[in-house]
């Protein structure tokens, strides 16, 4: 969140889109409508279609595109429908629009491809893809043009993919601010099992334990448990389809995780036994090392320090904090807010580069801010 040093007297010229011609989007839910918003903002003709008339009306009313017409001749078709009908819609779109390149944004790539191959579909104009982006809420109302910015967009090419068709799908990702990443369908599905599908299950399982917990226990919940269970609010109907379509890689990760949990549980049953403390310590250490491998801001493996600032729960305080950090020449790399139950203040956890910690802490304290702590992010 860099601080601006001034306002340009002339508005920046609109960015020229890489994708040209009409883009047909089948499925006007969260991803489909979000793609429509982003492309429409670039001046691209977006034609929307959806089996739900109300969903389609909402997406059009909110500006994600126009209603598709029978006379449309799209250059690119984006299929953004639930996983259980993805293969059906891809097959239909390939047949209806013989000159268009067809891609989809389903979160599982191998199962639809196997289904299409089994039906004998001509897949020379089909390229599977998947933007690693989304929100806990779904539908056209939740759509946003910026949810793809800075996110990976997996593109699954094969030996039949023409360079021109591949370039068109990658141009779509780039127009939406995403970063194209080429992977095989098998590698993609194994990857998302680990970084997306199993985390969803873990979050849901942990949040499910809250159902029988006393209110007093839940009143102690802090930002850590909220971060861990944030994605547990996702739609069950969609995840039943996703997990069923990617069951084998998900089961592999779950089995390995179950073995790890079993080992820790055994160690804690006899915490004074030989090797028990080492098992627990190694578990925490491996977690530290795993977190270190996750890309940070802009995909960098760069670690930050966290400065925790107490902020009064009154209008304008957060804006003042950002403004004074800008005056101190401290860039905010990330931000988390935690409200204290029953208290009129919150905690702003601000991630900064290590070299800026001392400047931020001393400068904020001089300006009257109370620093709760500084930690490794």
What features would you describe in this structure?
Helix content is 44%, strand content 16%. It contains 13 helices and twelve strands. The protein has helices at 30-41, 53-61, 83-96, 110-118, 163-175, 185-208, 215-218, 223-229, 236-245, 247-269, 276-293, 317-327, 357-366; strands at residues 23-26, 46-49, 66-67, 76-79, 101-104, 126-131, 152-156, 179-182, 305-312, 334-339, 345-352, 370-376. The strands form two sheets. The protein has an eight-stranded mixed β-sheet with strand order 3-2-1-4-5-6-7-8, with helices on both faces. It has a four-stranded antiparallel β-sheet with strand order 10-11-9-12, covered by helices on one side.
Tell me the helix content.
40-55%
* Residue fraction in strands: 15-25%
The Rg value, from CA coordinates, equals 24 Å
Helix-strand makeup class:
alpha/beta
Query: What's the total count of β strands?
Result: 12
Number of domains: 3
CATH architecture of the largest domain: 3-Layer(aba) Sandwich
Write down the CATH topology of the largest domain.
Rossmann fold
SS summary, helix count: 13
Low-pLDDT parts are: 1-13
Let me know the average pLDDT.
Answer: 89
Largest sheet: 8 strands, mixed
Give the terminus-to-terminus CA distance.
Answer: 17 Å
| CATH class assignment of the largest domain | Alpha Beta
Order of helices and strands: EHEHEEHEHEEHEHHHHHHEHEEHE
Give the full name of the CATH homologous superfamily of the largest domain: NAD(P)-binding Rossmann-like Domain
Shape: globular
Give the strand order, joined by hyphens, for the main sheet: 3-2-1-4-5-6-7-8
Organism: Microbacterium awajiense
Domain Prephenate/arogenate dehydrogenase: 21-298
InterPro entries: 6-PGluconate_DH-like_C_sf, ACT-like_dom_sf, ACT_dom, NAD(P)-bd_dom_sf, PDH_C, PDH_N, Preph/Arog_dehydrog, Prephen_DH
Domain ACT: 306-377
């Amino acid at each position: 969140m860099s601080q601006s040093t001034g306002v340009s007297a002339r508005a920046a010229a609109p960015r020229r889109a890489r994708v040209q011609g009409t883009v047909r989007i089948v499925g006007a839910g969260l991803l489909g409508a979000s793609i429509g918003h982003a492309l429409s903002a670039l001046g691209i003709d977006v034609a929307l279609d959806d089996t739900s008339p109300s969903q389609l009306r909402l997406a059009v009313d909110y500006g994600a595109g126009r209603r598709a017409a029978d006379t449309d001749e799209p250059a690119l078709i984006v299929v953004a429908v639930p996983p259980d009908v993805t293969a059906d819609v891809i097959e239909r779109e390939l047949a209806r629009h013989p000159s268009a390149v067809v891609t989809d944004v389903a979160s599982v790539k191998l199962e639809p491809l196997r289904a299409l191959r089994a039906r004998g579909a001509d897949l020379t104009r089909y390229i599977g893809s998947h933007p690693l982006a989304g929100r806990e809420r779904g539908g056209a109302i939740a759509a946003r043009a910026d949810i793809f910015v800075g996110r990976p967009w997996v593109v699954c090419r094969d030996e039949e993919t023409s360079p021109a068709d591949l370039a068109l799908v990658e141009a779509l990702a780039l127009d939406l601010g995403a970063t194209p990443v080429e992977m095989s369908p098998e590698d993609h599905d194994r990857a998302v099992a680990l970084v997306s599908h199993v985390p969803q299950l873990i979050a849901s399982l942990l949040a499910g334990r809250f159902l029988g917990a006393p209110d007093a226990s839940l009143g102690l919940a802090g930002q850590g448990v909220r971060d861990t269970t944030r994605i547990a609010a996702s739609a069950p109907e969609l995840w039943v389809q996703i997990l069923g379509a990617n069951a084998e890689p998900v089961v592999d990760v779950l089995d390995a995780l179950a073995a790890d949990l079993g080992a820790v549980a055994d160690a804690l049953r006899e915490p004074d036994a030989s090797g028990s403390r080492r098992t627990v310590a190694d578990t925490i250490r491996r977690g530290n090392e795993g977190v270190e491998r996750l890309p940070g801001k802009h995909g960098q493996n760069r670690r930050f320090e966290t400065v925790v600032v107490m902020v009064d729960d009154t209008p304008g305080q957060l804006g003042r904090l950002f403004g004074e950090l800008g005056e101190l020449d401290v860039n905010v790399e990330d931000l988390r807010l935690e409200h204290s139950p029953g208290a009129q203040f919150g905690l702003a956890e601000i991630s900064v580069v290590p070299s800026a910690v001392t400047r931020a802490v001393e400068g904020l304290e001089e300006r009257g801010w109370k620093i709760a702590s500084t930690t490794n992010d």
